[in-house]
Amino acid sequence: MNEKYAPLFQPYTIGNVEVKNRLSLAPMTNFSSNEDGTVSDAEVNYYIRRSKGVGMVITACTYVTDTGKGFPGEFAGHTDDMIPSLRRLATAIKDQGAKAVLQIFHGGRLCPPNLVPNGEILSASAVPAENPRGAGDLPTPRALTEEEIQSIIRDFGETTRRAIEAGFDGVELHGANGYLIQQFFSPHSNRREDRWGGSLENRMAFPLAVVEEVEKVVAEHAKEPFIVGYRFSPEEPETPGITMKDTLALVDALAEKKLDYLHVSLMEYWSAPRRGVEDTRSRLEIIQERVGHKVPVMGVGSIYTADDAIKALESGVPLLAIGRELIIDPDWVEKVETGREQEIVTKLSKNDQERLVIPDPLWQAILNAPGWFPMAD
Questions:
Q1: What is the SS3 assignment for 12?
Q2: How many CA within 13 A on the CB side of residue 351?
Q3: Quick one: CA dihedral 62, 208, 249, 252, positive or negative?
Q4: Which of these is catalytic: 46, 47, 179, 304?
Q5: How confident is the model over 199-241, as pLDDT tens digits?
Q6: Whether 179 is catalytic
């Protein structure tokens, strides 16, 4: 190994779980599960292909209740019937030497109506999401009742119990990318006037209640060390929307909950704040300075080369997640570890599907989303 990259391979303890290096597979939806919500053969093979080098694998998100399914081909964790499916995935990942973390979520107002019971989408308030393509608003959700909010909080706990029983090493709460946990925190999607909305403190109540429920379940059911992480998007483009000022208040509160790591969801590692702080540094550097002494921070976003990774680690963030690059080159970690970083492939070829063990639905999504991946000529 080139000694320049040795820091990437230093072991690290997340909570009470030691991971063999600083590199994780980022959570990425693959649209490839079976119709009944179980993990498919193609999906298992996709994860096996990408689990050998990294210290930790964070799975694609799984829904905690049937009202929260956010994607076609998404695997389920909402009933005990799904435990054997979850166990199959956890075992496949761990057999490759990585720790297995199940990302859990509820899609809220971003759920396609055809994937949820009675076509009824739910959120903090009856406010539709803005269409990122500018073609009008998406369907208007129904505001959750107090009873439904409490039920969904319990659902996050129950899916955590299933993750424990299935043999996962942890869960990551998906509070990013505009899904339900973020919808409660956002002033765009949360216009409530009860204890779950209004002030910044009230908008944090649902995310913190989910954290507390999950940590309670872990304390009750986990017989081995078990990681609880939390992923969040630091800003929203909408007005009103989450600003960096809001997010710094959120991470302060999350840091007090004794989470095992905070995962900042970004497309570009070095992206700077839009609004809310007067600071020219990257969002990740600001967040690391704010809470990194209390809780490990995981960074992500357009890390393609070994030099990208070591530069990111040198920013002070102790953990890195790599997403698109591990689809493009599943052998990325092994290449760096064995001094073959010059062999890393950073662009996807249209003839690579079989060699890279990419399921058909994910492959079609990649081909139909220009700009999502760097493509070879």
A1: strand
A2: 2
A3: negative
A4: 179
A5: 999 999 999 999 999 999 999 999 999 999 999 999 999 999 9
A6: yes
